[in-house]
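Researcher: Next entry in the queue.
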Amino acid sequence: MLPQVKVAFDIGRCPQRSVVFRDVFISHGHMDHIGGTPFHVATRAMHKTAPSRVYSIPQCCDAVTRVLTVHSELEREPLLAEVHVLQV
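Model: Structure for this entry, 88 residues:
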């Protein structure tokens, strides 16, 4: 987490305190960096806050979207998030 700039970064286990930040940045696709993304999205939805904005490197963007889709199917609820490709 980077509270100074109000973003979460690589939220593998998604600390509860990171859910207040709408923006999540993912540096690479290891589970210790993306594993908490569905929890972040679902928790923000449960609290009726704006949908998460997830920014990922191009190599991981499709996989992050698929992870959110699978969790949405498991929960039988839509996990609404904006997934954006980071352009370096």
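Model: The chain has three helices and four strands.
Researcher: Noted, moving on.
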